[in-house]
Amino acid sequence: MTTPAAPPPPSHRLPRIVAWAITLVVLPMIVITPLTLHQQLTLSVAIFIAALVLNRFPGRIPTLVMIFLSVIVSSRYMYWRITETMYMDNLLDLVLGSGLLMAEIYAFVVLLLGYIQTAWPLERKPHPLPDDPRDWPTVDVFIPTYNEPLSVVRPTVLAAQSIDWPPDKINIYVLDDGRREEFRVFCEGVGVHHVTRDNNRHAKAGNINAALKNTSGEFIAIFDCDHTPTRSFLQIAMGWFGRDPKLGMVQTPHYFFSADPFEKNLDTFGTVPNEGELFYGLIQDGNDLWNATFFCGSCAVLRRTICEEVGGIAVETVTEDAHTALKIHRRGYNTAYLALPQAAGLATESLSGHVGQRIRWARGMTQIFRVDNPLFGRGLSWAQRLCYINAMLHFLYGLPRIIYLTAPLAYLLFGASVIHASAPMIFAYALPHLFHANLTNSRIQGRFRYLFWNEVYEAVLAWYIFRPTLVALINPKLGSFNVTAKGGLIQEQYFDTEIAKASLFLLALNFLGVAAGLWRLTWVDADNIATVWLNLAWTAYNLMILGACVAAANESRQVRGAHRVTLNVPATLHFADGHSMRCNTFDFSSGGLGLELPTEIALAQEAPLEVALYRGETEYRFPATVRFNRGKRLGLQFTALDFAQERALVQCTTARADIWAARWGNHPRVPAHRVIGHIARISLVGFRDMFGHYARAAGRKLRPAPAAPRPANAKEPT
């Protein structure tokens, strides 16, 4: 158990107390002091230059100072917005202006809470286990499944069998809520437990809770059925349990080796951090500082005694994982996060499936907000309360995002002043707020989230998130658990009009706003040209974001049942005549292997051979046939593998301890202008695809229907 740190001596506490006192006095004075336009511009430029200088220095202290400067500028903006810009002289201005102000207050609160969460990531390292494996605890591995195909679950089971842990101290259970015969046969064949129940109450949470009653391991490791663990998973995750007897859960990242719908449809896989990397790369690590790590339902280990003490996996909401962590924290127990990918899984294949998954998360977090609000009740520190409340507030972004995408239309279409101030004053207050927030977040989040991409993700989901969160706020009991489909195929490219309809509607409104703005520039608003240009610029930005949303709805084909993953490791080809050749892999899947050869060789398609891969010094051979032979590149397809060979293949590929860690958090920092340029290019592609889709659809409607075939004995008309 960690020894509590001794309190700092009085000589160290005094400067801290003085610093806090000065801050609490000076900060409000800076925020509320009224300034002229010239003074406000001077202050804003001076603070921004200071932030730019600080940004050149590494370390966490400059980051904290940049956060402080950002808070000053943003607080001044919000104070000015509330006290100086809400003097509305008609009802339309008041209603629309109040809506925008509420959205800005929401964004400001989320910004502040985000700074608290991410200012100082803990960066916890693995703790060593006892030297003698006989002292290691017993672990039950749970793999819950419902309707996923066996081809998805199979690699996870085989990878779980490959975990480096004493065989007499680990048991693997496939929790099959689909009660399928082929799963029972497979589990018996590979030697793991196949567990079913006679109902599906409470979905995944109920499935796990039923298994808890019939197992006895000291710890439970849980993996979604598409998450294949590495061999080192338990040795990485278990050490902290021995150090802290009050530790109830250790979470590791969810890493996805397949492209999610945004990455696939926008062609950003591997080049732009995906939607989940910020949470697993930074936010969870920041939560860990405050003992507020969330349980995420997979790739985690729970201490059985604590899990059972809190009533098992929570069933009151559809985000059973986060709610379980909240219950653990309320009982005074600890959680931990290790930012080391030790498992990898499949991302959702289609945008509609992705939206459905996010709807469940949003509804579940809103349910927790209603039925077990972290701001109230006992057992949580204030830091824990703030971390939880920020996670819940995040999923309320639907309405604020829609407001931001339509706010400039209030003036362009109706002449309504949603911000009752001159354009120069808006520039002087709003731009520093936006620049500082983006600069500071870019420094904090740079490797895990590029600027402006969150607006694309949120704009796609906003309408679909807004409705279930509103319903859950009104009645948290409404709604049901939906399973995220994995392992599906998309046979043909298509434009998902159903998912894109909200973006298309907002696009139409913003194009209408541009037309109205150009009309106002001519002779209608000669006295407010700057205001018109300001709203037109805002609308142009919204069009860029919505164009990227439309591009995301253009579903790319996914015809591979087994996803290809980059892998560069030694291999050996063994030919039928007894010769062999050393080479290297360049990618792999559960069905085949790509090889880089030292020289070209003549091999016919379908030619049989064996390929050897290595686990340490041990060689494993796999029968295969040639799929393609292009220059020095060779593609192989595995022929029928027995269970032992399948397990060995997993050990040499997906279960390698280094394969996912090497890809984690390696995105370079990219300046804002390059990010905007990238999103703008994607947006143009989205407009092109959208217009092409509707042009083809119109062409099909206008094309005359083919004439019905005439019977063979029909006579020509006279």
TrEMBL record:
Query: What reaction(s) does this enzyme catalyze?
Result: [(1->4)-beta-D-glucosyl](n) + UDP-alpha-D-glucose = [(1->4)-beta-D-glucosyl](n+1) + UDP + H(+)
Q: Does the keyword Transmembrane apply?
A: yes
Localization terms from the record: Cell inner membrane
Its pathway, per UniProt, is: Glycan metabolism; bacterial cellulose biosynthesis
CDD domains given in the database record: CESA_CelA_like
Q: Which residues cross the membrane?
A: 17-35, 64-82, 94-116, 410-431, 502-521, 533-554
Identification of the protein by name: Cellulose synthase catalytic subunit [UDP-forming]
Please tell me the species this chain comes from.
Variovorax ginsengisoli
